[in-house]
Amino acid sequence: MLYTGYHYADGPCAVRYPRGCGTGATLEPLAKLALGKGVIKREGEKLAILNFGTLLADAEIVADKLNATLVDMRFAKPLDETLILEMAARHESLVTLEENAIIGGAGQRRERRADGAS
Fold it and tell me: Is this model's pTM higher than 0.90 or not?
């Protein structure tokens, strides 16, 4: 994510990362991420969990127990609306998981889009 932000030259870029220890994730070679594109980490049924931020490891455990689809959204802005609409069409329920403000967070943005507001 930092590598992608470092190479972004079309305007300001902000990368949010937590303090403290990491999760012990395996490091992969540096590569630019597709801006505004989430990644499906696990396919499931009925429920889709849309994760924004550092709770992905916990979300993986929950998704396994609930047989839920898990999506690492990676970007709050630009939001991957195409992927969200795809998940909404294929699942009975969507849950957004983020450690952010309730007002103005990714969940509220998704809800406004679902209601037809911008």
Answer: no
Q: What residues have CB less than 8 Å from 42, skipping those under 6 apart?
A: 60, 63, 64, 68, 69, 70
Amino acid letter, residue 66 = L
- The share of the chain scoring above pLDDT 70, in percent, equals 79
Treating both helix axes as pointing N-terminal to C-terminal, what angle do 106-114 and 81-90 enclose, rounded to 10 degrees? Answer: 70
Domain range annotation of the chain: 36-98
For 39, the token pair is 């990644």
**Residue range 36-98, CATH number:** 3.40.50.920
Instruction: Determine the 3-state secondary structure of 98 from DSSP.
Output: strand
The answer to whether the CB of 56 falls within 8 A of the CB of 72 is yes
Q: Name the pLDDT band for 14 (thresholds 50, 70, 90).
A: confident
